[in-house]
Structures are given as C-alpha cells and as structure tokens.
Design brief:
about 280 residues; alpha+beta; Double-stranded beta-helix; seven-stranded mixed beta sheet; three-stranded antiparallel beta sheet; globular; binds 2-oxoglutaric acid; binds fe (ii) ion
C-alpha cells in the first residue's frame, strides 16, 4: 500500500496510512522516526497491534521508562493503562504539559494506543514548541536567553487522587521533587531550538525574582497555547499515536458533560521511552 500523509493543521501533526506498525525492521523504523521528526505527532488508525507488538515498536526508539508514580499493567509493567471511568469528568493529562519534564531526563517519546473512546469528548491537542520558540516575542526571548527553569513533579496525589482507576506504583518515593532544565533546549536529532517549559510542571525561572518569573512564564504559557501552534485529534478506537515529547506539549481535553460525552469510559494504553538530559 502506498503511504498517505494527511496533515492535521498548519502547525504540526499528521495522520499516516500505509505503514505497518508490526514491522520493526530498521528500514520501517527509520520511516516512522523520520515522520515523527517531521510532524512531531503522528497517528495511525485501525492498528490491531497487541501489547507485545506495542512494546516491540516502543523499544525501537530506546529503553522504556517506568512512570515516577503510576503503576503499569500486571502482565506488562511497561504499559500504563490510562482510564477515565464512566462517571468521571476529569482525565489524566488534562492541561498543557510535556511528560515528566520534572525528571532529570524527561521522556523522549510516547506511544499511546486508544482502547476505548467515548462517542464524543476526550480529543487530544498538541502544540509545536519549535514554532513556539520561533514565534516568541523578541523581548521575552532576550529575557530568557541562557536561563534555566525549575520543573516540579507535584507529587503522587496529582497523578492518582483524582482518577479512581489509576493506581500507584508502590514506590516509596511519593513526594514532590524537581529538576532544572534550560528554557530553550536543542533537539538531539534535528538540532532545532525548542521552547521547553510547560504550564503544568514549570514553576520558576532561575535567577529572576518570583514576580518577574511569574509574569514571563504566564506570557510564555499563553503563547504556547495559541491555537495557530496546535493541532487537535479526534480519536477512534485502535489508533496508535506517537509524539515527540521533546518538541511538543499536549493537552487531553476533559469535555465530558451530561447528555454529551459523560457516561462512557475512555481507556488508553501508554508506553513512554526514556529521553536525554535537555541541553
Ligand atoms: O489520554 C491522552 O489523550 C493523553 C494523556 C497524557 O497526557 C499522556 O498519556 O501523557
Ligand atoms: Fe501527558
């Protein structure tokens, strides 16, 4: 089958047809990775891959990551099952963030497979942080040049307490912790500059007083969320999504209202791949 690429927006994202995700040959992997680097988030609908095939695909990208706080599946600890219960109106990842940016080595990429999708609601948005850097106000660029920021993990409650079907990984370290990263990082594969802060985890710019840091971060967060930097994806079941967590932020929309999307489960299987230390 001929490969088909449908762009999701002017900013980023593509839906791909004609690629077999069960084929983990070097040649096929290179094709997938090139698509990922170019579009930053890619989607493949109607992919009947099982857990082993999901893991095999993820392992091509590098060593797999264990989530700091959330437990994986009994049989496949590499897979975290994200579950929004039928009656829940909130869901995991429901604000702009880059996954585990509070770790010393934040996630490289995530492979998410949709298992159960409500008839309406629960789309996911992505925003292009390479474009966000390019289009950022010059005065702000000047102020943050060479600076770092503190990213905080927010503690286990943040990932578990609001989601009744998500379970902790039984590690003892349930406390909040933080790491410092450059505000602008260089993509290790493309060499491009990327704005690497996010609304959920980035707390403070190092070397500025709190007031100035808050003001600048607020402006940056507003800029990152500008719709012209984003794409939005409406899921169907058995879709595989891969995002480059170094160069996008994402937002799982919790729009589950009575008479609309409320009353349905939303289930995703998620595998994360370890990243580098940003520089
Ligand atoms: O469920 C989603 O659409 C994405 C959730 C999320 O933020 C994640 O898996 O990292
Ligand atoms: Fe996320």
């Amino acid at each position: 089958m001929q490969m088909e690429i449908k762009l999701l927006s002017g900013a980023l994202g593509a839906e791909i047809k004609g690629i077999n995700l069960k084929d983990t040959s070097e040649k096929n992997f290179k094709k997938i990775n090139d698509l990922l680097l170019e579009h930053k988030v890619i989607f493949f609908r109607d992919q009947l891959i099982n857990a082993e095939e999901h893991i095999a695909l993820a392992e091509k990208f590098g060593p797999l990551e264990t989530h700091a706080y959330v437990r994986g599946l009994e049989k496949h600890p590499e897979i975290v099952r994200i579950i929004k219960a039928e009656d829940e109106q909130n869901q995991w990842g429901e604000n702009w963030h880059s996954d585990v940016s509070y770790n010393a080595k934040p996630t490289k990429a995530v492979i998410l497979k949709s298992i159960k999708i409500p008839p309406v609601g629960g789309d996911t948005c992505f925003s292009n942080m390479e474009l966000a850097w390019e289009t950022l106000d010059e005065d702000i660029k000047e102020k943050i040049k060479g600076k770092t920021a503190i990213h905080s993990s927010l503690g286990a409650e943040f990932f578990l307490d609001n989601y009744k079907k998500m379970q902790g990984n039984k590690k003892k370290n349930y406390d909040e912790y933080s790491n410092e990263h450059p505000i602008v990082r260089t993509h290790p594969e493309t060499g491009k500059q990327i704005l690497f802060v996010n609304w959920t985890y980035t707390k403070k710019i190092v070397g500025l007083d709190k007031k100035e840091s808050d003001e600048i971060l607020k402006k940056i967060f507003e800029h990152q969320a500008r719709l012209e930097l984003t794409c939005r994806f409406t899921w169907t079941e058995n879709t595989v999504c891969i995002w480059d967590n170094r160069s996008v932020i994402h937002f799982a929309i919790a729009d589950f209202y009575p008479g609309r999307g409320l009353g349905y489960e939303r289930v995703m299987d998620r595998i994360a791949i370890e990243g580098d230390q940003p520089n």
